[in-house]
Amino acid sequence: MSTYINSLKQWCEEVFTIYEENKPMERDNLQADKKDELHEQFVQFKESLTNEDSLDELEIYNRANELAEQLELKLKENGIPVQLTDKMRADNQNNMVPIGGHKLPPLPYSYNALEPYISQEIMRLHHDKHHQTYVDGLNKAEREMQKARITNNFQLIKHWEREAAFHGAGHYLHTIFWNIMSPDGGGKPSGNLLMEINRSFGSFDKFKKHFSEAANNVEGVGWAILVWSPRAHRLEILQAEKHQNLSQWDVIPLLVLDVWEHAYYLQYKNERKKYVDNWWKVVNWPEVEKRFDTAQRVTWQPF
Ligand SMILES: [Fe+2]
Question: Which one of 156, 178, 198, 297 counts the least CB within 10 Å of its CB?
Fold first, then answer.
């Protein structure tokens, strides 16, 4: 918490300087003494950060974002394009992608690097348009779910969970996809991975055949995916239709609640809500904590 607040304070200083250097000059003498309202709001925000005990991280982040957007707009109106919100997102949470702060990762090679196998035209459209749409959609869904938590209004939660799954799966899978291809690619893996492929599938050729068949037989749109199962200690090949079934790939489940009817119907009949309320009384938090601690050891570059 205090690291977050400290970095926010630093961000305030930086944004303040940028704003002061660029803000529109008052030409009208009569207006010269009139206080700049946004400037005032910003000063107040900065002061509020000193009272650490009563601070809610979500609210602070939201308020900072709101102010940054207003400042950006004001500067833009005066022909000064400054990306303060991006700056805040990049500066403030080190390795964490803040809520609504996902970004399109750059391609690790040029658009035409995979030719003749994948054309430049496809790469441009696929990366710049399609992947960007997933990033934007995920950011929107995350912000809307944050808004629901703050306002305690969960009326549209089903919709935004779907959006988060669809766009989140799209963003994470494409982020992997660009990086697991290379103009110098092809051939076979080596080392541990090859050993594990041999152990899990019999041979590299058997794996390749299985993976290709899985890909060819995805119904409609989707993906073929090689996964490591930390439970089975084996590799497996899966298909994803579209790219989600209300879930995201590249995430690790920590706390799960079975709401199939077989999990509660004998006792609760149609009263799922009662079952869910009671379920909280039997959650084994030390096990969830253990899963969380282990899961945190897997880290990819944030986007
Ligand atoms: Fe795609």
Answer: 297
Round to whole Å and give the CA distance between 160 and 165. 8
Dist. CA 215 → ligand 1 center (Å): 13
pLDDT tens for residues 128-156? 999 999 999 999 999 999 989 988 999 99
Strand partners, 234: 229
How far, in Å, from the CA of 172 to the mean position of ligand 1? Answer: 11
Q: How far is CA 224 from CA 41, 44, 144, in A?
A: 51, 52, 31
In this predicted structure, the answer to whether residue 27 has a pLDDT above a threshold of 80 is no
Q: What is the mean pLDDT of residues 239-265?
A: 82
* Lowest-pLDDT choice from 162-171, 245-254, 281-290: 245-254
Rounded to the nearest angstrom, the distance between the alpha carbon of 34 and the centre of ligand 1 is 53
pTM of the model: 0.67
DSSP string, 66-104: HHHHHHHHHHHHTT----HHHHHHHHHTTT---TT---P
Cα–ligand 1 centroid distance for 217 (angstroms): 17
Query: Positive or negative, the Cα torsion across 135, 141, 144, 146?
Result: negative
